[in-house]
């Protein structure tokens, strides 16, 4: 199991998370405050102990982007804006943050126990964008890692 998945699963267990995860509450538990901002291009930015999320996003994408930002905060400390502009490191970090978000927001065992077959069922139950479930659907088949 990857480092990102381990961190996210540990948080799910620590806070007893199931179903639709309130990412803002998780952020608050971690000492982070979530702000909605009127970004035109960016989806999220971390500023000190805050996660600024684009107001234009729907609730599913806000949940995903906040979980993604929590993953960055826990696994990639530092000034991410500066690093994005001056290195090639962020690409693997983005994938890792997405993997963290997926594991925090979607419990594969819960989905399998519920008998979900379609990505839209998983997306609806966990309150995430269907696009991220399709990308991560291999995890539901049990062929991860």
Provide an overview of this structure.
This protein is mainly alpha-helical and 145 residues long. It has 9 helices and 3 strands, in the order ααβββααααααα. Strands 1-3-2 form a 3-stranded mixed sheet, covered by helices on one side. A hairpin with a 2-residue loop joins strand 2 and strand 3. Helix 1 runs parallel beside helix 5, helix 3 crosses helix 5 and helix 7 crosses helix 8. It is globular, with a radius of gyration of 15 Å.
List the helices and strands and how they pair.
Layout: H1 3-15, H2 23-29, E1 33-37, E2 44-47, E3 50-54, H3 59-75, H4 80-86, H5 90-105, H6 108-113, H7 119-126, H8 130-136, H9 138-141
Parallel strand pairs: 1-3
Antiparallel strand pairs: 2-3
Helix pairs in contact: 1-5, 3-5, 7-8
Order of helices and strands: HHEEEHHHHHHH
**Average pLDDT taken over every residue:** 84
Largest sheet: 3 strands, mixed
**N/C terminus separation:** 6 Å
Structural class: mainly alpha
Estimate the strand proportion. Answer: 5-15%
What count of helical segments does DSSP give?
9
As residue ranges, the low-confidence spans are none
How big is the Rg? 15 Å
The level of helicity is: 55-70%
Task: Please provide the count of β strands.
Answer: 3
Shape: globular
Identify the strand order in the major beta sheet.
Answer: 1-3-2
Concise overview:
The chain is mostly helical and 145 residues long. 59% of the residues lie in helices and 10% in strands. A three-stranded mixed β-sheet has the order 1-3-2, covered by helices on one side.
């Amino acid at each position: 199991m990857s480092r990102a998945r381990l961190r996210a699963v540990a948080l799910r267990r620590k806070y007893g998370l199931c179903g639709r995860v309130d990412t803002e509450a998780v952020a608050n538990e971690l000492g982070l405050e979530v702000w909605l901002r009127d970004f035109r291009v960016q989806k999220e930015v971390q500023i000190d102990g805050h996660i600024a999320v684009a107001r234009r996003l729907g609730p599913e994408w806000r949940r995903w982007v906040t979980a993604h930002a929590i993953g960055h905060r826990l696994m990639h400390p530092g000034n991410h804006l500066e690093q994005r502009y001056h290195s090639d490191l962020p690409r693997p970090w983005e994938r890792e943050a997405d993997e963290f978000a997926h594991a925090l927001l979607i419990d594969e065992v819960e989905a399998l126990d519920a008998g979900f077959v379609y990505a839209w069922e998983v997306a609806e139950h966990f309150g995430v964008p269907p696009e991220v479930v399709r990308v991560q659907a291999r995890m539901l088949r049990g062929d991860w890692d």
